[in-house]
Design goal:
Number of domains: 1
Strand content: under 5%
Helix content: over 70%
Structural class: mainly alpha
Radius of gyration: 19 Å
Number of helices: 3
Shape: elongated
Length: about 55
């Protein structure tokens, strides 16, 4: 069973801190990327709108 060693590694207290830090860094980078694109609302508006040829 290859999943058990992975679960044991994640459940280790030192690795839990590392996993939380990695999730926090990913969250921060995603936030910066959204802000560079003009915010979340324009990104969502472009994602759900029909594709229109804009000039």
């Amino acid at each position: 069973d290859t999943i058990k060693p992975i679960i044991d590694a994640i459940n280790n207290s030192e690795n839990q801190i590392f996993c939380i830090n990695v999730a926090h860094i990913i969250s921060q980078r995603t936030n910066v990327l959204c802000n560079l694109c003009g915010g979340l609302l324009p990104l969502l508006a472009n994602a759900i709108s029909a594709s229109v040829n804009r000039r």
